[in-house]
Design brief:
This protein has helices at about 1-10, 15-30, 35-50, 55-70, 75-90, 95-115. By secondary structure, it is mostly helical. It has one domain (about 1-115): Serine Threonine Protein Phosphatase 5, Tetratricopeptide repeat (Alpha Horseshoe), CATH 1.25.40.10. About 35% of the residues are buried.
Length: about 120
Amino acid sequence: METLEISTKLGDFDAQVTCHINIGDIHRQQNRYEQAISSLKKALSISEKHDILLAKASSMAGLGIIYQNKNDPNQARSYLKQAIGIYKKIGAMDTENAKSAQELLQSIEQQQNQNEE
């Protein structure tokens, strides 16, 4: 939390976003989904305001994971599709986050297709 306070005082938006993403990930790992969503939405807001595209994609991918964990595949798919779109736009599909987002999206879509059959 100290890093977040310092980066806020300095106006270091990249560091602020990274802190919020990391805090959100910790909450997600501890199944505290509402706190995770709150942290990732803060990261998303800052990254959108300051046009930090990789962080925006990472925030959206993280939200997609959380909504999948909460058994909300429609919301998960929405965030994952947006994240993947950004990863493609900035040429970052080779990153681990992009690959994970792509795999999760494919899994959700396969599951939904099986449910429709």
